[in-house]
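pls read this protein:
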Amino acid sequence: MEKKTTAKLDETKAAVKAAEAKVAAKVEETKTAAKEATAKVVAKVEETKNAAKETEAKAATKAEEPKKAAAETAKKRKPRTKTAKKAAKEELKPEVYIQYQGRESVVEDAIKKVTEQFVAEGHRASTIKSLQLYLKPEENAAYYVINQKIAGRVDLF
């Protein structure tokens, strides 16, 4: 009777270890998928920033051409009394949200938290030259690297 109980106990232990291994593999798979998704989001944001900068540069060069032509025609015409407010366009600032398991956060808020924590550690906010932000919603965390030297973690939600 004792041998049967010991054998069942050994089988149960082996089954628990196998289940733990499966869970650990699934956790690693989920972490990898989250890292890839985060990398894709960061790449897309960078791509959008670059596209916005290119568009802004193109708009600036195109805006200069009409100004030159307008200056030449203004000499010929009577001066206008209306001002052109369209020349002072605001830069596009997208709001990026991250949603995970019913929770939501704005990426801009995570950046503010990072800056506040950096200042609370005794640094000046003006010393931030570069900021890399890695969002891991499954850990409820945002990891950061400032100026390629200082790393840390803040709560995401």
About this structure: The first helix runs from residue 2 to 76. The helical segments are 2-76, 107-120. The chain is about 55% helix and 15% strand.
